[in-house]
Amino acid sequence: MLRQNKKRRKDILTSDFIGNTPIRRCDYLSSKYNTNIFIKEEFHNPGMSSKDRPALFMIEEAIRKGKIEPGGTFVEASSGNTGYGLAMIAREMGYASKIFVSKSCSSEKVEILKSVGAAVEICENSNGLHDFYSTQFRAQSYAANNSNCYFTNQYYNSSNIKAHYKTTGPEIWQQMKGEVTHFIAGIGTGGTISGVGRFLKEKNKNINIWGLEPTGSILSHFLTYRTLPTEYEKFEPIEGIGRTFIPGSLDINCVDKIFQIGIADSKSAAQEYKNATGFLIGFSSAALVAMLEAHINSLAFKQTDIIVVLFPDHGSRYMSKLYSKNEIVNEKSKVI
Ligand SMILES: Cc1ncc(COP(=O)(O)O)c(C=O)c1O
């Protein structure tokens, strides 16, 4: 079904289908925690993630402002999802794409990127522009040294927040008919939580905007102290979330609390969620489910609360990391 076709024209682009994703009540989590938990299912986007939204906004703005000539190359540093959205949209608009991912990116995501025509380069880390080996440094340097390339730079591009402020936030408000007490999302670039948080706070300043990062990420420290930590803990990379620098796309004033969770808890949560509901959820979505379980006492949900949790992508992107191995173990134990 055509979800969104603003302009009347013969050709229908994939980008016409970005956004207007459903919200579904999750009976499993709602009854487990005796409250009302709704999932904003972003894997219904054409690129199967929330990152199609900023990808479209960044591309459209670059073209509008003449930052790139027809046939040029969009360049991005990505944990995979923004890269895929970007590559998919760039291709159908007649542009090429070059995506820098870190070595923690799942093999599925690398394959998906290549399949849509992106040139992919794997880097050591995604520690920000000041690290020579990072995805961000390599992407910026590539765009600076090659002609007709544009680095969309989701970590510092205002179109990232704008995409969520103009689309995801209003959708949630309308779908929930203004009845929402909490919005919870993982933080990577900060675009989602800042855009949705800003929109919802403007509608009702009492809505709680809560973020999630993996253990070792420094964003919760920054929220509390407004400084960088003097000592860094070991960072547990969960694809798409957490940072060891403060991204410009994070408007910390839109966020009330940031929680932390580890990899092991997130992996178990993915399995438990799958067993209870039959859904394969993405890694950072599993981290959100694990966060509810680990912090449930301090979250202090009431029976009347209405909580929207944003699932940015789908578990099929993480078969090798979250599901396949366990399936094999189960198969073996069945045989025994
Ligand atoms: C799987 C996943 N979860 C969460 C996020 C975080 O979203 P944001 O960058 O808007 O903070 C991302 C971002 O790339 C992601 O790919």
Structural topology:
Blueprint: E1 23-25, H1 27-32, E2 36-41, H2 52-64, E3 73-77, H3 81-92, E4 96-102, H4 107-115, E5 119-123, H5 135-145, E6 149-151, H6 158-175, E7 182-186, H7 191-203, E8 208-214, H8 219-225, E9 257-261, H9 263-277, H10 283-299, E10 306-311, H11 319-335
Parallel strand pairs: 2-10, 3-4, 3-6, 4-5, 7-8, 7-10, 8-9
Antiparallel strand pairs: 1-2
Description:
There is one protein chain. By secondary structure, this protein is α/β, with parallel strands linked by helices. It has two domains: 14-44 and 168-327, Rossmann fold; 52-151, Rossmann fold. It has helices at residues 27-32, 52-64, 81-92, 107-115, 135-145, 158-175, 191-203, 219-225, 263-277, 283-299, 319-335, and strands at residues 23-25, 36-41, 73-77, 96-102, 119-123, 149-151, 182-186, 208-214, 257-261, 306-311. Strands 1-2-10-7-8-9 form a six-stranded mixed sheet. Helix 4 links the parallel strand 4 and strand 5. Helix 9 (263-277) packs across helix 10 (283-299). Mean pLDDT is 93; it is low at 1-5 and 327-336. Bound molecules: pyridoxal-5'-phosphate. Pyridoxal-5'-phosphate (PLP) binds at residues 49, 51, 79, 81-82, 186-192, 239-241, 282, 284, 312-313.
